[in-house]
């Protein structure tokens, strides 16, 4: 299938893009790499009147370290991260996630900001950045606001982005040297969307654990203080203290009503915990 | 091993190019440079694109089709197609109920994706824009989505005039009551999912009319252009001579391109109506939701055996979901009727009963896909044989060895009168068992895995009837019965060879392999042999490429035509050498006598350019021969293979990894072993798709739920292992060179071998899976169901 | 339509195309470079893979207009390429192609792997090729061919280039506009005007009874008597105003309502127009609103029902409202939407509906009727409550996968 006709605009800078977005009605879509939107356009699931192409905007392709965090422009691609073309503050965690998103040809155009804006619950960055404690700068003509990842995704394909707003930058805090990282996903085949994701950042010395159960049908379950999964206390023996029954109950409460699905999610999470401890 | 009498230049000079040579393919270069010509690549002046309005509902009455005024000239519905007849594929089997498939829906729609209106515009995108403006007013009817419920009284009816939903019921029975007292009796329900064949290129059609020739030309990605022509002729009411069907490069077929499409009829009509060429290319969404499906079988099967594992009989009721319509030419009943005839497999079977039902549902028509019913049959039979092994306390391989037809019994007529031509089935199984190292796997199983996964080993074996001809197909009474296969061979004035055959290549490499056959007969350099195929105007009639028949049939025809051509050349050569024809031989591309030789090139030059040098009495037919071929028996060749798999099953995530895979294959004499290996590797990949990944699910409203390749999972490079391959090479006693058909076999046995391996891994947990595909969800669900069952009741 | 300028196979080209023309159709139809094949048009199969600024990209989900100024290399442009020549020899030797339809895209991806991979590791090659599907070969010959070329090149001391040839950030092919006035905003209007507005469902004389494919239940309490609540459920306009995205298109009568509901699942928007029938049973304080609607744009239709039952609590001073929403979806949206995501949307719908009913019954006005697009519309306070409610939802089944 071919897309329904759409208009196309390539604004000269971010301000111009926001201005176009602000004046336009609801049937405008921002496009960057187009790796999520393209298939939907081609299937005529989405029929915008106008596409605003932000892929060329230099402001969205900048990467810099600001104090203890890395600030990435929204149009940095998965391949940019995979190949190490940008600095890393996550001790390789982001590189590892990026290299396993879809396929190389997709990673060469797909962007981190685009993936987040699309808010597919099965997408890697949605879960991984939540676990890393990332924040986003959302920008509109009215100004900027900062939203934590765990508040950004509100449902399946539904983010906290308001009309006229786009994801401008992703702020990734440096991962402490004492933190352990684990990221496991279950896909039926390489490059496929995940059916279960476990993303964990556990710092036994700080007794903290950020735990994400992703690729459920709604927003991921983000536990910023996940001590309950480890018997109420995060310590060096967290791997042995991980309590599958608690994870199971959390999933049930979140509406994952099918036992087999819960079983897979719990075990994927368990593996992510084990990977962190390894 | 070969039949020497068939080899005028066997193992002579020119070796390295003939039968048995691992020759790189002639067709590769253009395909690797992007210079293949597929249907979508054809450019004709004034050509416009077609998009179809398709039914969004599985079953509905059409109340109205509203076309905006401004598009009236660009949109066509059934009401416009006066004189166009529906597609009818009738079987002569008693009791078969006829379905008529209108090329554009009339009255009712009976499947999602059914064609309702045809929209034409300069580009596909614009044609889709027009299609989007057409409003369908449909009254939804209850959908028949479950083939077993469809047989129950009170079910909604796909074709009201039938009174039920059964295309055909068959019943075959031999001595079944004699098996009933067997000490081992195992019953199960086993099923295979509905699949889409998914060649990388979909169907595609370009239609144009040539007024000079008063001829419709249809370019179509098709496996059987001559059959397409017959079908078009019937639907359009046009003489066959006024229709030319050309199948250019075809991006994979697997059965999907083996039917007459309503789209082909529509575009043929449209180009004549509009006076310019028109094109339609099937996109992936159309392929997945609207086109032919395959493989959906259900078995209720009981096997009887003695304590020592020897089979006493099989009793089965098989149901096949045939979809909404009977497809041309194979009909809606081929699949289920084939189930009944092949369920006993390669085994000695003293008693047998099989009832089959071909059921109509509100889904796409089912088509014969690579292996046809054999994949489902092999799955059902081989899964239940493992249960017999468990009951008898035997290794699964041992149960096979005790029951397989033995080599000294060949040729062998089995209980359904299949005539197994040759081979050593037990030897294939023994080699597979040795190669997979059953003992090693059992030892590993006892040790257990550090990572918590469970290891399992599974085997399966089949024999496959291929290239079956008149004697088999005349009984079906379908619109197509293969007879003799023909080939034309012509020496060109410069000594090259042109071959014309009516089969078609869609990846099988026939431009190379048939040239190898010609080289075998005439010694002409393969580089100088040109194949012309896939064009009704250029080739002899043929039922085309299906049923693993092309190398047996077209290979035999090419050999026959070349042999006759060689005889004529030899006579001319003898005269040029001033020898008695009886004392000259054709060898290595030249006619040789005691004291000299004359090349085919010189003979051709003489015939065409210097006829004055030809002696009197030369055969006036010259250096162009059309001849036909049929094997000595046309009941088919029986290739066979034993497959063995080792898998690791992860009970936590349900994931299955194939650790090792062995295939021992006997395809008779191999014309090009490299090409044969390729067919087996490719078949295995599709078999793995059937086993673990591919499924077209439907909801209760008959809506197909896998509409992109993100939902319908095709195995990729990390899902398919490189198998270890071992060839046996038992010639068929009946065919040219002793070749057998092997194109489909690779896809038959993998689902059974893999499922058996998974079940072997899970048996200690009391878990078994009797349904394809074996998805992680199903594995986990089965394990949880088992642990629930074992949990003490509170 | 706009003039698009880019470099294809080292040749500067200009062609007029619509913004919706993808790069594959652009090279095929405007330049007759038909070696680039379309296999799925949704970025999965890899048959359309081309080099964009020197590295592989999907030409089916990359629009030509977005590649202004980019360097495109199709299979035809790799005729003389040294790596591809080596690959072609290996492909034919290892029988790495049969029908050849996937081959151009496969060679483009294989070339990239040959350049990038440090060694001929079979697993890495398989993972690297996983974005290219082949239905014929089982990948055996392809993997062997790529392995052999990598081995040969590393043996000749040709070093890998881990990042391909890429040095700059951002999507390949984009941001290379070279025409003067590159900073000028270009707006191209759609080629054709919007299609006629959606027709209302022509006639729904009889509601076929239906069994919903999915059912979600909800429960909440209000401090009003069942009679008051039942009266409110009788006011169809009031009920509709609580249903996010719903609007009445004609004055309602007590049994029959004409209306529309606009829903949004991420970027996918649909407006189901149709009819609803109202059934009430005063005896047991229950009722049912059953509706049927069509979205013309996506050729999808839905049947849905809202069932309610009012249970007196606190000696009849308050009411527990038991709600259930069931629906069946057919057509394109049913086929393409992942069922789990649709259920999530329906769960959000019932949560907002319940919250709005609750508020209305409590005397505050419902949140502004808007698209049902999730919780972004709902206040923080309400969201917290919905989050709690979620835990009580159960759909009949999560759906087997």
UniProtKB/TrEMBL annotation, chain A:
<protein>
    <submittedName>
        <fullName>Carbon monoxide dehydrogenase</fullName>
    </submittedName>
</protein>
<dbReference type="InterPro" id="IPR036318">
    <property type="entry name" value="FAD-bd_PCMH-like_sf"/>
</dbReference>
<dbReference type="InterPro" id="IPR051312">
    <property type="entry name" value="Diverse_Substr_Oxidored"/>
</dbReference>
<dbReference type="InterPro" id="IPR016169">
    <property type="entry name" value="FAD-bd_PCMH_sub2"/>
</dbReference>
<dbReference type="Pfam" id="PF00941">
    <property type="entry name" value="FAD_binding_5"/>
</dbReference>
<dbReference type="InterPro" id="IPR002346">
    <property type="entry name" value="Mopterin_DH_FAD-bd"/>
</dbReference>
<dbReference type="InterPro" id="IPR016166">
    <property type="entry name" value="FAD-bd_PCMH"/>
</dbReference>
<dbReference type="GO" id="GO:0071949">
    <property type="term" value="F:FAD binding"/>
</dbReference>
<keyword id="KW-0274">FAD</keyword>
<dbReference type="InterPro" id="IPR016167">
    <property type="entry name" value="FAD-bd_PCMH_sub1"/>
</dbReference>
<keyword id="KW-0285">Flavoprotein</keyword>
<dbReference type="InterPro" id="IPR036683">
    <property type="entry name" value="CO_DH_flav_C_dom_sf"/>
</dbReference>
<keyword id="KW-0560">Oxidoreductase</keyword>
<feature type="domain" description="FAD-binding PCMH-type">
    <location>
        <begin position="1"/>
        <end position="177"/>
    </location>
</feature>
<dbReference type="GO" id="GO:0016491">
    <property type="term" value="F:oxidoreductase activity"/>
</dbReference>
Automatic annotation (TrEMBL), chain C:
<dbReference type="Pfam" id="PF06240">
    <property type="entry name" value="COXG"/>
</dbReference>
<keyword id="KW-0408">Iron</keyword>
<dbReference type="InterPro" id="IPR036010">
    <property type="entry name" value="2Fe-2S_ferredoxin-like_sf"/>
</dbReference>
<dbReference type="InterPro" id="IPR001041">
    <property type="entry name" value="2Fe-2S_ferredoxin-type"/>
</dbReference>
<dbReference type="Pfam" id="PF01799">
    <property type="entry name" value="Fer2_2"/>
</dbReference>
<dbReference type="GO" id="GO:0046872">
    <property type="term" value="F:metal ion binding"/>
</dbReference>
<keyword id="KW-0479">Metal-binding</keyword>
<dbReference type="InterPro" id="IPR036884">
    <property type="entry name" value="2Fe-2S-bd_dom_sf"/>
</dbReference>
<feature type="domain" description="2Fe-2S ferredoxin-type">
    <location>
        <begin position="2"/>
        <end position="78"/>
    </location>
</feature>
<keyword id="KW-0411">Iron-sulfur</keyword>
<dbReference type="InterPro" id="IPR051452">
    <property type="entry name" value="Diverse_Oxidoreductases"/>
</dbReference>
<dbReference type="Pfam" id="PF00111">
    <property type="entry name" value="Fer2"/>
</dbReference>
<dbReference type="InterPro" id="IPR002888">
    <property type="entry name" value="2Fe-2S-bd"/>
</dbReference>
<protein>
    <submittedName>
        <fullName>Carbon monoxide dehydrogenase</fullName>
    </submittedName>
</protein>
<dbReference type="GO" id="GO:0016491">
    <property type="term" value="F:oxidoreductase activity"/>
</dbReference>
<dbReference type="InterPro" id="IPR012675">
    <property type="entry name" value="Beta-grasp_dom_sf"/>
</dbReference>
<feature type="region of interest" description="Disordered">
    <location>
        <begin position="161"/>
        <end position="196"/>
    </location>
</feature>
<keyword id="KW-0560">Oxidoreductase</keyword>
<keyword id="KW-0001">2Fe-2S</keyword>
<dbReference type="InterPro" id="IPR006058">
    <property type="entry name" value="2Fe2S_fd_BS"/>
</dbReference>
<dbReference type="InterPro" id="IPR023393">
    <property type="entry name" value="START-like_dom_sf"/>
</dbReference>
<dbReference type="GO" id="GO:0051537">
    <property type="term" value="F:2 iron, 2 sulfur cluster binding"/>
</dbReference>
